[in-house]
Amino acid sequence: MATIKDVAKEAGVSISIVSKAFNNYVDVNEKTRQRIFDIANELNYTPNIVAKNLSSKKQMTVGLISSGVLNNNEKDNNAFDIFKGVYTAVSESQFELSIYLIDSLRQKQKSYAQYCRERNIGGAILQGIRIDDPYYKELIDTNIPCVVLDIMTETENGLIGSVSINNSDASREIAEYLLERNHRDIVIIAGTIETYVNTERMKGVQDAFKANNLELDDKHVLYAQFSEQEAYVLAKEYLQRKQPTAFLCFSDLMAFGVMKAVKEAGLRIPEDISVTGFDDLLLSSFTQPQLTTIGQNFFEIGKLSALLLLDLIENRMDEKHVYAQHLLMERESVKTLLNH
Amino acid sequence: MATIKDVAKEAGVSISIVSKAFNNYVDVNEKTRQRIFDIANELNYTPNIVAKNLSSKKQMTVGLISSGVLNNNEKDNNAFDIFKGVYTAVSESQFELSIYLIDSLRQKQKSYAQYCRERNIGGAILQGIRIDDPYYKELIDTNIPCVVLDIMTETENGLIGSVSINNSDASREIAEYLLERNHRDIVIIAGTIETYVNTERMKGVQDAFKANNLELDDKHVLYAQFSEQEAYVLAKEYLQRKQPTAFLCFSDLMAFGVMKAVKEAGLRIPEDISVTGFDDLLLSSFTQPQLTTIGQNFFEIGKLSALLLLDLIENRMDEKHVYAQHLLMERESVKTLLNH
DNA sequence: CTGTTAGCGCTTTCAG
DNA sequence: CTGAAAGCGCTAACAG
């Protein structure tokens, strides 16, 4: 393994010149630089990132801290798309990417701050983290720049950014979509209360109702913890008592559960009951019927968050929250009702 | 940021003792060790992995080099499962994981060997790599231990392992499955010729045919490059001339293409034509009809390959090729024909 | 333009 | 059991 020393010796210069040559310093004789490169090439030399990292006080790696991936529902590979987006953006920068997957099942989980300190991590992207996660708070309170996905942070630390779609807008759109089609008896399958995403989506629904001079009754809001199974159970229960014209679900996964319950109740979608989702999972275009839902581009979200993080690290960000685009994917699970 | 120095000073010992305490050396006074830990805790000290990596000559990180992930078909998230498996195994070891995603579209791609050298990588897992990849050859020729997935390596380097299902066995099984159901007019939708996986699967089919005293006609083998679209085109073409009783496909993706062609030809699956796949993608249980195929546990494959790599690195491997389990997933796309 | 020197934070002999 | 010292491969002043 050739080191900088070998190159320096072979080229008959000091190692600092070699270092400078490789770091594009201008004050290096062009001929010397060329000779150094030739020799480096010949020796198959390439600067050691680990050493570089240690000696330059700069932190050259960013972390992607992701919770719930390992024990995730296999139908949900959004995390993979986010990862690909992050990777793409980071690999085009000078930074290295380090990945830390958390798993509720895994005990010896170390604190995120410690994880970062150990690796000289200069900034992190947090995904799937709950706002009440103590490690999250701890990390935010360090001065490590962070970008969080799908949660809104409440600290006044200048180094926090966040990326998400505009959840309330998206939610309002899909609620209005149902309202325009004359649905009035809508059941909301919400996720986990007190979650940022849930709050925003709730707000969107309420806005849409208000805009139509309607009132959203609490009894029509069911909290299914973003779980397919839970949604299935709640919808099944509900259907034994009443039959709404539509279920508006805060995630596709929950919509799948609802669809199952509806079908088991002997009802047809969308003829008897309409269903909408949120996320646009891969499977959502393959359900029977295909699910009308809100599409998020997770690859893009990953990319945006990495870009935002790099901006934060270099202290030249314009805005701290960036919204990713969303799109109402109109498919087959909603029926237009007759106006009466 | 507390360093080892701070801890040493605070504890009134030399840094070498602190180092030893943290590395579980036995020759450290138990009381000293305890004091060091207490102080470290108090100071929020945690050893810096980068420095550790540099000073100890040992290589503490393994690489996952993965090709074709970024521009992959979105229906295919096997790479993600492999990744999760690798991550799981590596995170339970003392090693760090570094990921390198290649993309045919991406030019400034650096050689795998260089990638490893730059990061002090002590061993790598290669996924989605083609055997004729020049960088692959280069890496294999270094003495860096490697584990390759789904290809068989031909070098005599003692530090190469490989992991895959037993492709010829699996292929034979699914061919026999069709044969047992009295299919005799079978068209093989093969992948890319000269590919390890393809060769093995071909062998399996041939074995099954031979065992039944049948001959496989070259005219019944169509090479679709593992592409859904290509398979669709070839099957469509073929169906204009002849109508086999079954299509045996070397990947689920190609099976999807075939299914589309069959349906477009106005034929029913499996009533008119049976179809089988290979891989068991998530979608394969959601197609109409559900696809009978060979299931691979990619998470397990990832885990196995990481374990094998760690073994190789520590020079205590028993075998160089490990087979992962496969499973014939019997679903709805094959019909049993009447014996005549 | 180039070389010297002092680290980065840690591990690892080698003495004591 | 403990400490001093050399060094991992590189960067970054600071002189010249």
Automatic annotation (TrEMBL), chains A, B:
Protein's UniProt keywords contain Coiled coil: no
InterPro entries assigned to the protein according to its UniProt record, in alphabetical order: HTH_LacI, LacI/GalR-like_sensor, Lambda_DNA-bd_dom_sf, Peripla_BP_I
SUPFAM superfamilies noted in UniProt: lambda repressor-like DNA-binding domains (SSF47413), Periplasmic binding protein-like I (SSF53822)
Protein name: LacI family transcriptional regulator
Keywords for this protein: DNA-binding, Transcription, Transcription regulation
SMART domains on file: HTH_LACI
MF (Gene Ontology): DNA-binding transcription factor activity; transcription cis-regulatory region binding
Domain HTH lacI-type: start-end pairs: 2-56
Superkingdom to which the source organism belongs: Bacteria
One Pfam family per UniProt: LacI
Organism: Psychrobacillus glaciei
